[in-house]
Amino acid sequence: MKLVLLSIAASSFFGATLTSPIVPKVEPKADPISFKEKVAPLLKKYCINCHGPDKVEKGLRVDTYDNLMKGTRYGKIVIAGKSADSVLVKAIKKVPGASAMPPSRRKMTDAEIKLISDWVNEGAKNN
Known about the structure:
Layout lengths: L1 H13 L20 H12 L18 H6 L16 H7 L16 H12 L6
Helix pairs in contact: 2-5
């Protein structure tokens, strides 16, 4: 009798019976970061003046996804899935030893840097 009462009390308190499996709540997965809608506008805002079709410093263009992913004559600047290894992310984070970008007083916000870093970690997709 005590077991039955405990079972009833537990089910009303926890919203399940003792024989019900406990299923963890799964948070919905966030939408992937869009290159076209989120990343490209930041590259245009901060980078295009020096790394665009009119001016190509260090052999780098960021005016299109394909140009960005080509990198420079020295190699790729985006390593999909690995923001910590990506020259682009090191540059915008102003990591010591990396070229700090943008070099002017205009600095990306922490949220903008995180967005680009997260996009790289998500696989740097052309979406």
